[in-house]
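From the methods appendix. Each design record in this collection lists the tokenized structure first, followed by the designed amino acid sequence. Records were kept in a plain field format so they could be parsed without special tools. The example shown here is representative of the layout used throughout.

RECORD:
FOLD TOKENS (119 positions):
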């Protein structure tokens, strides 16, 4: 089992910044993919940014150049630095981890943290 706890969401004005954190209950070195997804009202959950293997990263097209994913293996934590935020970035942001358990891929989600971009 992997537990993920997100923090750092909130209300920010357009053009502002926020940093989200996702703390895992296990060593993130044992997790083969970890990152952030988001879901806005009435829309499907979409990829924001993720480590797909090791230090390889993948970003959603709408956040490229504005958001940066990073990790601290010693703290078992993944971060999402969000700059130049837009109203369209408003969503619940979920941390995701994919881990192989007994030879099978298992998918884990955090409880989500709300990000609201509004003036």
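DESIGN:
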């Amino acid at each position: 089992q992997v537990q993920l706890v997100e923090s750092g969401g909130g209300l920010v004005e357009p053009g502002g910044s926020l940093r989200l954190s996702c703390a895992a209950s296990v060593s993130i070195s044992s997790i083969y993919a970890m990152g952030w997804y988001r879901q806005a009202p009435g829309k499907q959950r979409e990829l924001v940014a993720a480590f797909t293997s090791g230090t390889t990263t993948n970003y959603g097209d709408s956040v490229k150049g504005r958001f940066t994913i990073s990790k601290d293996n010693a703290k078992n934590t993944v971060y999402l630095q969000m700059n130049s935020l837009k109203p369209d970035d408003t969503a619940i942001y979920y941390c995701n981890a994919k881990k192989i358990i007994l030879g099978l891929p298992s998918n884990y989600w955090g409880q989500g943290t709300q990000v609201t971009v509004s003036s």
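APPENDIX NOTE: The two ends are 40 Å apart (CA to CA).
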